[in-house]
Every structure is written in structure tokens, then in C-alpha cells.
Amino acid sequence: AGAYAAVAGFIGSWIGLILLFGWTAALFFHLLNGIRHLAWDAGYGFELPEVHASGWTVVAGTAALTVLAWIIAFTVV
Q1: Integer CA distances (angstroms), 25 to 46, 60, 70, in order
Q2: Is there a contact between 3 and 10 (Cβ–Cβ < 8 Å)?
Q3: How confident is the model at residue 2 (pLDDT cuts 50, 70, 90)?
Q4: Can you tell me the distance from the alpha carbon of 65 to that of 2, in angstroms, rounded to the nearest whole number?
Q5: Which pTM was predicted?
């Protein structure tokens, strides 16, 4: 019980929330970049402008999904 309380206290602190936010962003970045690579495996998006556009799409999607996940998490709880 004591160890759980210590971990819960750390995760609920400001530094714990920053770490969780970063891990959430890393999860969505990895997910979206994986989808991008699946499109490359299928032979799509190899032109340089398409590579840049899909890269920025991954960054924008990561930001949007991360913020959306945190909004949902704080409104449900």
C-alpha cells in the first residue's frame, strides 16, 4: 500500500504528469509514423514533397491526438 501511494503521488505530481504527457506523445508519434511506413511499404508517398507533407502530418496528428487524449482523460475522471 505504501509503495502504491508513493508511485501514485509521483505520477500525480507536475513532473509525473509531464512524463506521462511525453509518453503519450511518443505513443501517438510511433503509431502515426508506423502508418506512414505502411504506406511507404505499399509504394505510396516516395516523392520528396509527399515525404515532407506526410512527416508534418505525423507531427500535427501527434499533437492533436495527444491533446485530445488528455482532454478526454481529464473530463472522464
Answers
A1: 25, 11, 10
A2: no
A3: very high
A4: 34
A5: 0.88
Give residue-wise pLDDT tens across range 38-63: 999 999 999 999 999 999 999 999 99
Instruction: Find out whether 32 and 56 touch, Cβ atoms under 8 Å.
Output: no
For cell 504506406, what's the residue?
A: 39
Sequence-distant (6+) residues with CB within 8 A of 40 are: 46
Spatial CB neighbours of 21, under 8 Å, sequence gap ≥ 6? 66, 70
Average pLDDT over residues 12-30: 97
What would the grid cell of residue 76 be?
472522464
Inform me whether the pLDDT recorded for 77 exceeds 80: no
